[in-house]
Amino acid sequence: MRPRLLAATVTLPLVAAALVASSTAAVAARPAPDVTLTPLGTYATGAFDEGASEITAYDPTTHRVFVVNAQAGTVDILDISDPTSPQKVGQLDTPGANSVAVHDGLVAVAEQAEERTDPGTVAFFDAATDAVLGRVAVGSLPDMVTFTPNGDFAVVANEGEPQGYCEGDIDPEGSVSIVDLRRGVPAATARTAGFTAFDAGELRAKGVRIYGPGASAAQDLEPEYVTVSTNSRTAWVSLQEANAIAMIDLPSATVTDVAPLGLKDHALATNALDPSDRDGGIQLGSWPVKGLYQPDAIAAYAVRGQDYVVTANEGDTRVYGCFDEEARVSTRTLDPMAFPNGSALKANTALGRLTVSTTSPAGSAGVTELHLPGGRSVSVRASAGALVWDSGDALERLVAEREPALFNANNDATHSADSRSDNKGPEPEGLDLGRLQGRTYAFVGLERVSAIAVLDVTDPTKGRVAGYASNRDESGDAEAGTAGDLGPEGILFIPAEDSPTGQPLLVVGNEVSGTTTVWGVSLT
Fold first, then answer.
1. DSSP 3-state of 15
2. Does 324 fall in a domain?
3. Most CB atoms within 10 A, among 232, 262, 314, 389?
4. What CATH number is associated with residue 486?
5. Which domain holds residue 281?
């Protein structure tokens, strides 16, 4: 495998043009440093496209990385005392594991039930001895777990996905569980923050997408990812399909608000995209479509006493029995008033191949707006959900500039450039924040491209691209395990003070290649 290291320079015209106008309003007296990522070592499970390396967590005392291995139903334990040679030293028996987190020597694992619509559990282990300390019942399909910074609570996003939408199918309610750990794991109890208070219908009026056939708001809202404020009192939860974020008061276990995230106008020059896999390659342009941000991973930080949330706007759709919201533009009837050039737009080289939601607004003459899943970007939002900054088309332009052979490629096959242009593009999915010499950087996994983008979000209103790296090898064979890292999902920043080498590290779990790679992080 031939790893490739590519550091972005924001003075390049192609990258700079991708940033929204506000990001170029001020010129710093001294250029902010960029980030270089260097692959140090990789642990490979040997399993291809089985979710054998997903979410990662780290215990600084033992220098152990805990990696969700969904294929095996375990959390694999890797010793990274020598980051150039990660070694598997054990595993935790965690059937149904979806997520893992570590705080002060305590490991928490979110486990879905065998029947995923049933209540799941959070299992707790000792990070040093692997001993099981206990399990606490939570909601249906716990998909993500994190600790509050003070360690008092474990907060769990219970996604509550339906079996389907056919008659007799179960559609459980989504919720967030707050596990109280102040008296230790044996005495731990869980409270549930649910969404039944929003069943009256006001969320639809606000612009939150409640659209599952026959579903109440509580059934339709599916918590995806959780982040917690620095004071351990507030949680923000991404509601991906709903294109919204929920705010939760942790002491009272109450959902205080659900904020819609709005639409991204791809007709604007700063929000260009490539909408077709049949247009001959990289063809970024402005189009009359609107993106649903629909974040997956989110992370909170504070600047001058104000909370902000960074989101990786991956996008998602519902494809179930008796309900499938995905459709190509070519199959939709377009309102001629809204789309006077509709016939031309439906060509395969234009918008015809683009995947949009069947929930897009429509009237008697046809579809009046085209809504596509995912913002293909990273955003910074204020604590109440308002958009502060978005990377626009910077991610697609970044890959086009730095590694065109991977532009909107798929993560399960080599030589697949442009194949995902019609459906969510690079798919920014996982992210983590890290502090380097007083600046805050977002490390973002581009799921389909199989690369990592770094964005400087020190100033929440003026984010910028600050780095790019890929450990993918297009000369290899994906299924044979010779194509490097594919499908980054778990992104974990380890600060210098917690690192076994005294230098900051980034640990990435790659679900398609089944590999976990440790990267060195430095400023240039």
1. helix
2. no
3. 314
4. 2.130.10.10
5. 4-316+374-523
- As for how many domains the chain has, the answer is 1
Relative to beta strand 290-292, strand 371-373 is parallel
Instruction: Return the number of other C-beta atoms located less than 10 Å from residue 46's C-beta.
Output: 10
Can you read off the two tokens belonging to residue 252? 């009272």
- Would you say the C-alpha torsion 401, 404, 409, 411 has a positive or negative sign? negative
- Asked if residue 340 belongs to a domain, the reply is no
Residue 39 lies in a domain: yes
Dihedrals phi, psi of 473, to nearest 5 degrees: -125, 105
Per-residue pLDDT of the chain (524 residues; tens, 9 = 90+): 333 333 333 333 333 333 334 443 433 456 899 999 999 999 999 999 999 999 999 999 999 999 999 999 999 999 999 999 999 999 999 999 999 999 999 999 999 999 999 999 999 999 999 999 999 999 999 999 999 999 999 999 999 999 999 999 999 999 999 999 999 999 999 999 999 999 988 999 999 999 999 999 999 999 999 999 999 999 999 999 999 999 999 999 999 999 999 999 999 999 999 999 999 999 999 999 999 999 999 999 999 999 999 999 999 999 999 999 999 999 999 999 999 999 999 999 999 999 999 999 999 999 999 999 999 999 999 999 999 999 999 999 999 999 999 999 999 999 999 999 999 999 999 999 999 999 999 999 999 999 999 999 999 999 999 999 999 999 999 999 999 999 999 999 999 999 999 999 999 999 999 999 999 999 99
